Amino acid sequence: MSAESSGPEPGPLCPEHGQALSWFCCSERRPVCAACTGLGGRCRGHRVRRAEERAEELRSTASAARELVIQRLGLVRSLCESEEQRLLERVHGEEERAHQSILTQRVHWTEALQKLDTIRTSLVDMLTHLDDLQLIQKEQEIFERTEEAEGILDPQESDKLNFNEKCIRSSLLTQLWVTAVLGSLSGTEDVRIDERTVSPFLQLSDDRRTLTFNAKKSKSCADGPERFDHWPNALAATSFQAGLHTWMVNVQNSCAYKVGVALGQLPRKGSGNDSRLGHNAFSWVFSRYDQEFRFSHAGQHESLALLRCPAQLGVLLDLQAQELLFYEPASGTVLHTHHAPFSGPLFPVFAVADQTISIIR
């Protein structure tokens, strides 16, 4: 019985020369045999290295990459833990402050009730035991006592009794949260424009995703209760009332646009602020006019300092947290966040007064 060799299995051979691929051609980025590097070989004159040297170099590069990943994730983990500790301490501090305010107010109202009881007893005593003439003489005292009682009932720093949710605001947490959300979502919402709402100054594409501004008012648009008749606005066909939603808009061709959300009861008619996006209580929008960017709601405008004009604009709506967020999809950079108690279903809303904007799918 012959003994079988226990040596290593032979490696792949050069298809052209049938020799072991013991060299690596740096020019062609592939393993080659000795004959390929010699006289008449296809890699003669190229820079070549021994295959084992190239393999060791790759192992070293992979090890360095692995260490870099571990180092960076460790830094992120450490930063997240520090931020978690900082925010939890702020929450605890705010909880303690609110609790102490409640205790202080409880003492105040206990004393106030005692004062009211004293005043009540005094007034009842006057009304019971004084004759008409004495009562008239006591009119000023009765008036002063009544005025004192009314003052006791005035609110005393009632705003301090509320938990201030701003204590959990963190730009770092928001940026990490957005990155995690965008990485975990399976895709953006299939948002399309409701053609019944499109302003006569806008043209809607066949796929109902692109709005193009036209300075001349279209006469072919049939007017209806849903249509904006003055401002160049349009609402999406779908509304959101729960959950987490995101959609993106291509805005690179326009220097005048608005993108955001609106309540369904947003007025549609007239040139007043009632139907102008960002100028009423029904709409929340990110806007651009030339090189000026801002967030607008209820006539309040907040200027935004952007380093560059975004080619795309992302909208992230978290209805559980009552948060509206605008971001740049290419970098994941958060451009603005807004917290508000939204009172009903929200529709994506758009306006354009220059060129074209398109919903990206």
List keywords for this structure.
single chain, 361 residues, alpha+beta, Jelly Rolls, 2 domains, six-stranded antiparallel β-sheet, disordered N terminus
Largest sheet properties: 7 strands, antiparallel
Number of helices: 5
Strand order of the largest sheet: 4-5-16-7-12-13-14
Uncertain runs with pLDDT below 50, 5 residues or more?
1-5
Strand content: 15-25%
- Based on Cα principal axes, name the global outline: elongated
Task: Quickly give the CATH architecture of the largest domain.
Answer: Sandwich
Order of H and E elements? EEHEHHHHEEEEEEEEEEEEE
What is the end-to-end distance? 70 Å
Structural Rg: 36 Å
User: What is the CATH topology of the largest domain?
Assistant: Jelly Rolls
Average pLDDT confidence is 87
Quaternary organization: single chain
Question: CATH homologous superfamily name of the largest domain?
Answer: SPRY domain
Assign the structural class, choosing from mainly alpha, mainly beta, alpha/beta, alpha+beta, or little secondary structure.
alpha+beta
Level-1 CATH class name of the largest domain: Mainly Beta
Domain B30.2/SPRY: 170-361
Keywords: Metal-binding, Zinc, Zinc-finger
Organism: Acinonyx jubatus (Cheetah)
Pfam family, one: PRY
